[in-house]
Amino acid sequence: MPHAVALCLALLCAAPAMAQNVQLAGILGGKALLVTAAGAPQAVAVGQTLDGMRVLAVGRDEVTLEIDGQRQVLHLGGAPVSVGARSGPRTSLVLYANAGGHFVDSGSINGHPVQFIVDTGATAVSIGRAEAERLGVKLQQGKSVRMQTANGTAQGWLVTLASVRIGPLEQRDVQAIVTQEPMPYVLLGNSFLQPYEMTRKGGELTLQSR
Description:
The protein is mainly β. Helix content is 5%, strand content 57%. The strands form four sheets. Strands 11, 12, 13, 14, 15, 16 and 17 form a seven-stranded mixed beta sheet that branches. Strand 7 and strand 8 form a beta hairpin.
């Protein structure tokens, strides 16, 4: 497996971000069907994010969102609401690939140090059981799942991490998969990466807040 590589942090000053319109189109199995400028409705569960908007709660006919630290309630059948206007610096993290082409560096989960390897093909952050227990993750509070591995079917747990941080980038209430098998690194998958704009140029991977 690759070794840790250098990390470059930068705060990039950008022009004020434009507001976007979002509308609650329906409630489906505890998920909010949100319509943005992207087009078709997207089902978003509590704790998940869409275009920088985090779903805090889903009711019978309303959803509570968090945008830039502010709460916004959308009602079913209501008119589109303009959200997300902001100005000021956008936080950026630049990772450099090692000789093996992997992006690896230190960060933290629930305030405890870990080594991450970025995996844009992984649906969720993934952690070995021993590492999860070291981090204080309560498996009994998660959902038991069965996973297909190279060695066949294996037991796993779907859990929620209170915080995941790498450099200046932090996400809260991040879904993760805990596997029985030990892992030398924590896979930094799309349950963390999704809210960020990702740009790769050669051996550089830039993650930037929207």
